[in-house]
Amino acid sequence: LDAMTKIDTLKKMVRRVEKGHVKVGPGLLESLLSDAINATEEAISEIEKNELSRLNSVASIVGTEFDQWNAIQAVINSSTSKCVLLTAFTHPNFADEAAARINDSLPEGCDLLLLSGEPDRIHETSFAERTKEYEKALVKNGVSGSVRVENTRRASHAKFVISDSGMVWIGSCNMLSAAPGSWVLETGVLIDDATVCKSIISHVLNDKWLNPSD
Residue 86's beta-bridge partner residues? Predict the structure, then answer.
């Protein structure tokens, strides 16, 4: 962070000088450049000496449901045989959008388990029935039999998509109930790291989030 801050300060000062917004001597720019280089070299050295494990790849996703779905599709498309998508809610009226996204990204021969995680909410006595209605809506919109929709065993407000290749998206968007074209700002992270995926799956299984059949 220190290195990136110094690099950013240098870039902004150079840009201001180039545009004629400020006048500074060469000594200041040389000093800022030197600070940026030294901080960067120190950061690289610290990273090389650090023995803590690091993620293979991680990217932050900030944007609407459209942006989150793009990241989610990347996870689904990375599957070799199985993928799991967990969301808090489903909305049959928006199943056409999810169906299109799934059909575009799910590799042939792969199974996708869609989980709805809020079956125990107060005044939601028809929750399980609505989940099945959502599955029917997906089929009506052309989703194949390799996609199954179930409720979780325990109530969960989590949202993630995990593929068996070791890629995962975790975020705030309820992807199976998000309205297409929504301007609601959502956040998420797209991680490509098998160790993280295994940890999440182990937590879900050990905490008995799912029905045994799932």
Answer: 115, 160
pLDDT at 125: 64
Rounded to 5 degrees, what angle do the CA atoms 182, 168, 157 make? 60
Rounded CA separation 211/152 (Å):
6
Convert the pLDDT of each residue in 137-151 to its tens digit: 999 999 988 999 999
How many residues make up the chain in this entry? 214
Q: 146 exposed, middle or buried (CB, 10 Å; 0-12, 13-18, 19+)?
A: middle
> How many Å separate Cα 204 from the centre of its chain?
17
What is the rounded distance in angstroms from the CA atom of residue 35 to the CA atom of residue 29?
10
Residue written as token pair 């968007």: 173
For the segment 86-109, the average pLDDT, to the nearest whole number, is 93
Q: Span 85-102, mean pLDDT?
A: 93
Residue with tokens 């989030």: 209
pLDDT of residue 124: 63
> Dihedrals φ, ψ of 95, to 5°?
-65, -25
Strand partners, 192: 57, 167
Q: How far apart are CA 174 and CA 124, in angstroms?
A: 17
- The pTM for the full model equals 0.76
Q: What are phi and psi of 52, to 5 degrees?
A: -70, 145
For the record, the structure tokens of 33 come out as 């450049």
Handedness of CA 166, 170, 176, 181 (dihedral sign): negative
What's the mean pLDDT when you consider all of the chain? 92
